[in-house]
Amino acid sequence: MILFQNVNKDYNGRPALSNLNLHIGKGEFAFLVGPSGAGKSTMMRLLYREELPNSGQIFMGGVNLNKLPTYQVPRLRRRLGIIFQDYKLLPKQTVFNNVAYVLRALGVDEKNVEKRVISALSVVNIESKKNAYPTELSGGEQQRVGIARAIVNGPPVLLADEPTGNLDPATSLEIVQLLAEISQRGTTVLIATHDEPIVNALRKRVIALHAGQIVADVDSGVYELKGNS
Amino acid sequence: MRIFRIIYRVVVESLIGLKQSGWSNWFVISILATALILFGFIMQVTLTLKTLVNSWGSQLEISVYLKDSCKPYPEAQKIGAMKGVEQVLVIPKEEAWQKMRKSFSVAYVDNPLPNTLHIKLKSPTYVEQLAPIIKAMQEVENVRYPLKVARIINQIRRFVEIGGLFVMLAMSAATLIVIGNTIQLVIQSKQREIEILSLMGVSHFYIKGPFILQGILYGTSSALIASGLIAIVNLNCEKYVKLQLAYLAPSLTNNLEFGLTPIYLMLFGLGIAVGATGGAITSGRFIKL
Ligand SMILES: Nc1ncnc2c1ncn2[C@@H]1O[C@H](COP(=O)(O)OP(=O)(O)O)[C@@H](O)[C@H]1O
Ligand SMILES: [Mg+2]
């Protein structure tokens, strides 16, 4: 589903990713770990075509992102659910409308908007707060809304960049477990994080990045990647 | 239909943007409307002059205005004997006055018109040859001939056109800047929304559309105001202007009619073009997708 081939990315001549090769299959769940500055966010931005690599190829569901014309970027992004550390919710809209916003912008009729939003909110178990505003919610609840919005369009791939960065450990664990559940239904999930406990708790595939290079890639791994190969 | 729902949303978003812009809307609309009103009047003046020139330029005619002290018919015979003259038509001042009052229903004043002779010539070459000679005659108050008038009018018209073009360009540039500033503020206040929509895969049309539409709405309202004003002025002043022209150049006011529709169409076209361009440039500059 996701494929990096010899990808290089520099910022002002300083390499952020060096000769990166990676394959993540359909329906897989993987953590992308590494210290701050390792290049995790850069990989995410390449995947949702916020940026282009300096060299190498990136494929998303068979589509070569280098060759994707700008006007088709929205179409790519509709097939991705993106989850952010700061949730990126609209403060003046209710929970329901935050999730509904994109569906309405895509021209979905109100009956279907209602059906799909309620269904997404129930997956993340926050249906009861649908009329609340983001500021009235806890961090964990806000991130649930962020996840509901990411899955409301039924995307085959979910990308989450530090989704637990602003959450306490218990809530963090709930959030990744929620993402793991969603992955069970066939969604490919990639989580960039340096949150050790959640990685160790789930024992999923762990891809370790250091200074723009993959230094380890282990199934059922832990953050330290000791004694797992 | 999906597309109608999207368009409906774009319209709603642009109305929200208009509401947010508050008093700036009136600033933008008054500047753009002023530019369009100016444009409309310049168009009308040039079109009128063009029509006049076209209907006169080809005529082989000299109009001779006689002094009130002399009798028109002997004068007509004198001129009729000149070389190159084909026909002389006498229009006594009473006759001209009655005709004009029939068509313009003017106020009851003393007859301001002179006795007039219309001289038809055998070929255009005689026009400028005979005109000075006739003008020099003692009984003649003044002479007008279409070629000369047409030449002067053409000069005026060119001046109005060039001057108008510069003023128009300056006003359009000013309007673009004002629209840009107004829409930029809306974009800034919606930055977060725009970023989220873009990341969620909402189409560029949906994201930028409201701002372009906001510009188009400015253009349309300004054109409406400008057209309305021009229509009112025309309704009230047409007769007066025609009378003035008729007084200046009797018998030359035929074929002065042309429709205002092309001017209105131009106003809407130009207003919408300027508005849409302003919206498109601004959203292109300040929305990075
Ligand atoms: N927009 C940018 N401009 C310049 N340098 C950048 C930019 N984004 C990231 N970098 C650099 O690229 C490297 C990788 O950054 P990033 O992908 O954000 O790492 P991570 O998400 O793993 O913390 C860092 O050295 C960072 O300074
Ligand atoms: Mg990062």
Compact overview of the structure:
The complex is a heterodimer of chains A (229) and B (289). Chain A has 229 residues and is of the alpha/beta class.
Describe this structure in words.
The complex is a heterodimer of chains A (229) and B (289). Chain A is α/β, with parallel strands linked by helices and 229 residues long. Chain A has a domain at 1-80 and 194-229: Rossmann fold (3-Layer(aba) Sandwich), CATH 3.40.50. Chain A is 33% helix and 27% strand. Chain A is built from seven helices and ten strands. The longest helix of chain A is centred in the C-terminal third of the chain and has 16 residues, at 169-184. Chain A is globular and about 45 Å long. The mean pLDDT of chain A is 94. With 289 residues, chain B is of the alpha+beta class. Chain B has two domains: 2-56 and 151-286, no CATH class; 61-145, Alpha-Beta Plaits. Chain B has a four-stranded antiparallel β-sheet. The chains are: A alpha/beta (229), B alpha+beta (289). Chain A binds chain B through residues 48, 70-71, 73-80, 82, 88, 90, 101-102, 104-109, 149, 153, and chain B through 2-3, 5-6, 9, 192-193, 195-204, 206, 289. The structure holds adenosine-5'-diphosphate and magnesium ion.
Number of separate domains of chain B: 2
Helix run count of chain A = 7
DSSP summary, beta strand count of chain A: 10
Spans where pLDDT lies below 50 across 5 or more residues of chain A: none
Distance between the termini of chain B: 26 Å
- Describe the main β-sheet of chain A briefly: 6 strands, mixed
Give the assembly state of these chains: heterodimer
- What would the principal axes of the Cα set say about the shape of chain A? globular
How far is the first residue's CA from the last residue's CA of chain A? 24 Å
Q: Structural class of the secondary structure composition of chain A?
A: alpha/beta
Mean pLDDT of chain A: 94
Largest interface: A-B, 24 and 19 residues
Elements of chain B, N to C (H/E): HHEHEHEHEHHHH
Going across the major beta sheet of chain B, what is the strand order?
2-3-1-4
Element string of chain A (H = helix, E = strand) = EEEHEEHEHHHEHEHEE
Q: How are the strands ordered across the major sheet of chain A?
A: 6-7-8-3-9-10
